[in-house]
Amino acid sequence: MVFAGMGVGMRSAVSWTSMINACCENGRPAEVLGVFEEMSIARVKVDEVILLAVISACTKLDCTSGLGNWVEESALDSGFLQNTSVANALIHMHGKMGRVKRSCEIFDAMGAVKTVVSWTAMIQALAMNGHGVAALVRYTQMLREGFMPDEVIFLSVINGCSHSRLVSEGHQLFKSMIEEYHITPWMEHYGSMVDLLCRAGSLDEAFEFVLAMPVTPDPVIWRVLASACRDHGNASLARRVMDHVIRMEPDHEGNYVLASNLYAADEDWRRVVDVRLDMGVRKGTSTAAAAVSSVEVSGE
């Protein structure tokens, strides 16, 4: 209200920056883009802080390629396309949009100004889009250039191995992280290794890996393993896993939906009825929210 009451002529660059940051900090990415569009119409000079906020908003919105191009053109027109922080953010944004080729072009154009954040953004872009081998190649290049991998880079490249079913490579990376770089794995690293083994169909090995973890596995890891058992038709192991899951989170609605679907796939209708009855009597587990996904095809 204060910003709107100022009038366009009274607003300085600080006013626009403050308004954009306020929207960004309060989780309103769509409003960030709206304010930025007003700012562009008013021909106010864009700075690095505003560009980073706008690129972050696009990334959070999973925006269309047209919107991403508009933001990148704004960075180019403002002379910030070669700015390291802006370039890193654009690599990440295009990666989230599935535009890996554009991420690679921006990354390769950076030359000697690359930082460990640049390498992380590039490896993440490749990994999240299923280019596991390319992610490994970039990881090797990063090591050759003298950069030290951290927890985030290892997580990204192991995820890339998971999506491309590069089991031996994922194992070697996990081992290298602990033994060579002395990095203590996060729960997410263990989860990625379980996902890697499950995607490759090595369910028994995944189960043994979870049991041997030096930290208590979280329910997400058990659910990943249970879903993999269902997909691969391993009903006996699935039951053992679901027992762990429901014991850990007896009031989580998703556990009962997963168990019901798992027993239905095995045509164990008696257990399906038991699970649904148990689901109904537990507070907060009688309904489940539907999930929605969107896919961009030819700009639509």
TrEMBL record:
PPR repeats lie at residues 12-46, 115-149. It comes from the Eukaryota. The keyword Nuclease does not apply. One of its GO terms (molecular function) is RNA binding. GO terms for biological process: RNA modification. Keywords: Repeat, Transit peptide. InterPro entries: E_motif, PPR_At4g14850-like_plant, PPR_rpt, TPR-like_helical_dom_sf. The keyword Transferase does not apply. PROSITE patterns: PPR. NCBIfam families: PPR. This is Pentatricopeptide repeat-containing protein. It comes from Miscanthus lutarioriparius.
